[in-house]
């Protein structure tokens, strides 16, 4: 008996890894392109050039924030697929939707960089992060419920990775709320959380993705 297409498609977890690396690479490169070199007409002075450069500091801050965000999510997805040994059509599409929101990150970053003092731009950026986290959570839950996680490691990795996603999203929400008090306080808080997840300054090995 022949199998249906839906049973045949999306069987390779390695293909998800491959396209994810490509999308993350492009998205992380596009982030810096939103920082435009200042243009001047005629002669310029040293002070005018320095002033124009330092006026870009909010954009550099948002760029660093988004680069860290992309890096954290890339590492998180990689951690999941280290233990996901098989796939199906639905898991493929869950990850494609996750990558859809990753590819929007350069836009939400540019929007925040241009309107850093507006609540709407902060909410838009947070919502982008929330959707990425949501799809990563759905991916892990789906893989668990359909037996795609390596059985010998499932008891050790399922709960820590799930807890990591939920905790990170709660902290991102806290950072977004702090932005309503002062955008730079909120962004600095989120960056501090990201640096901890990247390098585990606090909480030891459990803080790493």
Description:
There is one protein chain. With about 210 residues, the chain is mainly alpha-helical. The chain has one domain. It has eight helices and no strands. Helix 2 packs antiparallel against helix 4, helix 2 runs parallel beside helix 5 and helix 7 packs antiparallel against helix 8. The longest helix is centred in the last third of the chain and has 31 residues. It is elongated.
| Overall pLDDT level | 87
What is the strand tally? 0
Task: Give the termini distance in whole angstroms.
Answer: 43 Å
The tally of structural domains comes to: 1
Unreliable parts: 205-209
Strand content: under 5%
Largest beta-sheet details: none
Rg (C-alpha, Å): 20 Å
Broad shape: elongated
The structure class reads mainly alpha
Short description:
The protein is an all-alpha fold and 209 residues long.
How does the SSE layout of this entry go?
Blueprint: H1 5-8, H2 13-33, H3 46-54, H4 57-81, H5 89-114, H6 119-145, H7 151-181, H8 183-199
List keywords for this structure.
209 residues, elongated
């Amino acid at each position: 008996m022949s199998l249906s297409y839906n049973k045949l498609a999306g069987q390779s977890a390695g293909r998800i890894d491959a396209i994810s690396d490509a999308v993350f690479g492009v998205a992380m490169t596009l982030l810096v392109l939103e920082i435009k070199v200042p243009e001047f007409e005629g002669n310029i002075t040293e002070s005018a050039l320095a002033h124009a450069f330092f006026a870009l500091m909010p954009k550099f801050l948002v760029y660093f924030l988004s680069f860290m965000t992309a890096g954290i999510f890339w590492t998180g997805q990689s951690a999941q697929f280290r233990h996901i040994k098989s796939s199906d059509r639905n898991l493929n599409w869950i990850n494609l939707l996750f990558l859809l929101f990753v590819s929007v990150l350069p836009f939400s970053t540019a929007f925040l960089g241009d309107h850093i003092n507006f609540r709407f731009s902060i909410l838009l950026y947070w919502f982008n992060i929330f959707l990425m986290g949501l799809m990563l959570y759905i991916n892990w839950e789906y893989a668990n419920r359909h037996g795609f996680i390596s059985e010998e490691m499932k008891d050790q990795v399922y709960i820590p990775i799930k807890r990591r996603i939920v905790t990170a999203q709660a902290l991102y929400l806290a950072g977004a709320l702090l932005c309503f008090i002062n955008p730079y306080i909120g962004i600095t808080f989120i960056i501090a959380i990201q640096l901890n997840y990247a390098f585990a300054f606090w909480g030891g090995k459990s803080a790493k993705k």
